[in-house]
């Protein structure tokens, strides 16, 4: 009987509110940034911004926005190609049609090596030359106008 009572008390204690630790001074610098909301406040579980300055914070926010946009485009590409919409024509000079390339991860193996390298080079070009604030007039991180 004592064992059952101990189990009940310990399981009830698991749902009791815990003490919230105070944030360190370095994290308090970002408490007023966009996206900080209760009950977590500024959430940095990996400690990437421990002892970081505003420039580092802005860089990580910029990268997060860019990768989020890329993920959205990748998801949209999956939806469109699984629906059956493909580019017209051939992917290479030997006559491999875009329609013959399967969906999903199977496309990596079915794609000609030269086509895959062109895809990687194009993404690299976008990363290095296109997706950046070249004018210096960005109003917020991720503003590529």
Short description:
The protein has 145 residues and is mostly helical. It is built from 5 helices and no strands.
What's the total number of strands?
0
Radius of gyration: 25 Å
Distance between the termini: 70 Å
Estimate percent helicity: 40-55%
| Percentage beta strand | under 5%
Order of helices and strands: HHHHH
- Would you tell me the structural class of the helices and strands? mainly alpha
Largest sheet: number of strands, sense, barrel closure? none
Number of helices: 5
Mean pLDDT: 80
Uncertain stretches of 5 or more adjacent residues: 21-26
Given the C-alpha coordinates, what overall shape results?
Answer: flat
Characterize the structure shown:
By secondary structure, the chain is mainly alpha-helical. 48% of the residues lie in helices and 0% in strands. The chain is built from 5 helices and no strands. It has helices spanning 2-14, 25-28, 54-83, 106-110, 113-130. The radius of gyration is 25 Å and the shape is flat. Mean pLDDT is 80; it is low at 21-26.
């Amino acid at each position: 009987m004592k064992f059952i009572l101990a189990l009940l008390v310990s399981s009830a204690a698991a749902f009791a509110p815990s003490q919230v630790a105070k944030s360190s001074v370095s994290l308090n610098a970002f408490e007023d940034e966009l996206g900080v909301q209760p009950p977590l406040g500024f959430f940095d579980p990996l400690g990437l911004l421990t002892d970081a300055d505003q420039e580092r914070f802005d860089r990580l926010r910029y990268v997060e926005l860019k990768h989020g946009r890329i993920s959205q485009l990748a998801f949209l590409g999956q939806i469109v190609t699984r629906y059956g919409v493909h580019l017209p024509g051939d992917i290479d000079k030997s006559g491999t049609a875009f329609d013959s390339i399967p969906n999903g991860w199977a496309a990596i193996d079915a794609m000609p090596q030269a086509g895959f390298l062109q895809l990687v080079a194009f993404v690299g070009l976008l990363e290095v030359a296109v997706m950046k604030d070249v004018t210096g007039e960005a109003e917020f991180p991720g503003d590529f106008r």
